[in-house]
Structures are given as structure tokens and as C-alpha cells.
Amino acid sequence: MDGVLKYLKDALARKDVEWWIKFRNPNSIIKDHLSFFYCEIAFYIIAFLTFSHAFRVGGRYKWLWIASLLHGLTVECVSYFLPDIDNFWHAQSMVMLLGQRLPLHIVLLYPGFIYTAAIAVSQMKLRSWAEPFAVGLAVVLLDIPYDIMGIKLLWWTWHDDDPNIYDRHYWVPWTSYYFHAAFASSFTFIFNLSRRLLCQSTAKFQSSGCIIETICAVITGLFSMPLGILQFVPIYHYFHDQLNIHTEVCLLLLIATYFMIVWSSDRAPYLNARIGGVSKRSILELIMIVLFHYSLYIYLVITEKPQYIKSTGYHQTIGSCTEKVPVNTPFGQVLSKRKHLCLTNYDEDVFNFKCLKKQPTNGAEWYTICGTPYPNHLEYIIVVTAFCVFGLFFYFQAMMRSGHLSPTKAAKVKHHKE
Predict the structure, then answer these.
(1) Based on the structure, what is the number of domains in the chain?
(2) How far is Cα 386 from Cα 367, in angstroms, rounded to an integer?
(3) What is the pTM of this model?
């Protein structure tokens, strides 16, 4: 923690504006990395739509949006400053923050995913103890096609042999799905709990005023990450680190647990959970988001040719094949990972250096990587499209065949005159 505080103190003392924010000419992205340009623009559109919905509907909806943005800033900033979890590098977008490590659109991903999922799940009218887990599952459904296509199209890269992300699914770490489920459920739990503890309003999405709601949003933004990390301890860290069980099994155990909790609640629904006939205007922006999001990834998996991609930016530092650094676990076990990317012995099928005349030299952390062709393009099309269809089906059921949007004002009660 002292190292984090020192880093932040040094950063705050910087006078170099470009460390805080740096702009990139979109023409270079369009030329070498067109799909990443699409990704960035897509998240600006999704963020605008969620923002528009939140502030159009009002009440606590706008505070949910703000809290999810604060949560995203917390997660991303802490990730770059803690060595044990600093294991990924984003491609360079048009707007980069924090020493060109954080693309602006990645911050906006959090309200894009969490806000959309939270509102859809709120229409299902689940019990309060089940709702956070449903949001976690709903966020994972949005994330899966993004994660599969994102790593294949070099929107980011992962550390080559970090034990926490070593087990992969189409080169996506299983822990990435675990992360989205655990952190989104923790976010929802703290957001709802803070309302119960601090707010006196009767309606779930009725605002309790700027001061109270700001406190709730800040609490949610700061403490969702620690609670999300705690969810890794009983299933992932114990089974994976102590018992050497594959991360896929750990994730399936988490998903199964979430699903059973949600299903238990949905088996005994509230009376207003199956009304149907939901006003499309009340959730118009969210309908647009879901259709746009899944359509984009179906389009990308069919049309994009990753073998022509060149991604220049920060990646794992090139260097020694033997130097190791420790990776500490909650149970006191010390694992290890290579400090550098070993050019003669790395296991990343999504990129190589064949498009370059000369490979990067030892010590390089800013260099170009080249995309690789699909090992089986048809398989990618089927997998990504299947998850998109599954996601569309879930969100249709949640948003169009469940209850109405929660009101932002308490219902007025008429009193008979004596």
C-alpha cells in the first residue's frame, strides 16, 4: 500500500500533462487497427446511451451510473499500481490516461456493462439477496463476446505466464469472467446496501438527495473492488492455488452457485415480476445498447481479419527468460511468474512479430505486435454468435417479459376525509 501511495503522490506532483491525458490521431488506428477504432467508438455510444437513460429517468438511476463510473476508475487505477495484478496492457486508443495505460473508453465500459445489466435485472423483481448475483451473471453475458474478440483482435494483451491468468478460454483468462461476475455482484450488493443503511426513501430508485446519494456512490465506487477480491478467496484461490484445480472448474463452481441463488428467487417471484407488456420507451436506450453490442461482435467475428492487425503500444517488457518475480496468494503461498516476455519461449497464440523486419530488443516495453489468423474461423463464428444469441435471449426475457422499470418516486397514497 505504501508503494501505491508513493506512486500516486509522485504522479500528482507531475507537471507533464501528457502523462495524465494523451491524444492519438485516429487515422493511425484506422490504418493498422480498425477493429479497435470500432471498439472505442462503440463504448462512447454505449456510455452516451446509458448516461441518457439514467438522467432521463432520474431518481437513483443517475447515481447508479455515477457509482459504476467511480467503480471503473478505482478498479483500473489500482490494477496498474499493484504488481500482483498489473498483468495486462491495453492498446492505444484516441484518448489515453495515466501514462498511456488507461483508454478512456475502458472507464466507460463499466457503466456500459453494469448499468445495463443492473437495470435489466431490476425488472426481474428478484429478492434482494439474489439480485447481486443475477447482475453478475448478466454482466458476464455482455462480456464474453467482448473478451473473446478483444484478445484475438489485440485490443489488449495479457502477461504471458502469470499463474492467475494462465488458464485460458480462446486465450481469455477464465479469471476474467470470474472478475466480471464477482465485481459486478459486489458492486450491486454495496450499492443496494448503502441505500438501506443511509437512505430513508421507500422506493428502490427514489433519490434521497445529492449529499446522501453522493456518499452512497463514493462508498460503492471505492469498496466494490475489495469485496470482489474477497470472492476470489474461497473458490478460486483455495481450489486453484492450494489444490491445483483448473481455473475453468473454479469459474463453473462460481457460476453454478450464482445461478442456483438466482433460480431459487425466481422460482417464487413477486406478483409484479411477470407483468409483461413493458413500455419500450422506458428502456429504449437499453434495448438499443443490447442490440448494438451483440450485433457488433457478430459483425466483427465474421468480417475482421486479425492477421493484418498491427498494435503498437505498451506490452509486457521484453527480456530475460529466467528472471522470476513472486506472486503472493491469500493463503500465504508464493507463486512465481516471469518478469519479462521471453521472445524464444512464450505462449501467446494471438500475436507474433512476423510483420516486423526486426524483433523488439531486450528492455523494450513499447513495441509493435502482429495479429495472427484464426486457427478455425468457423469455430470462432459459431462460438461468438452463440453467446450473442444467448445474451439477446436473456436480455429480451429480462427487459420485455418481466416487470416494469422501478419508479423513481414513492406511490402517492390517498387518505379519506373523516
Answers:
(1) 1
(2) 35
(3) 0.92
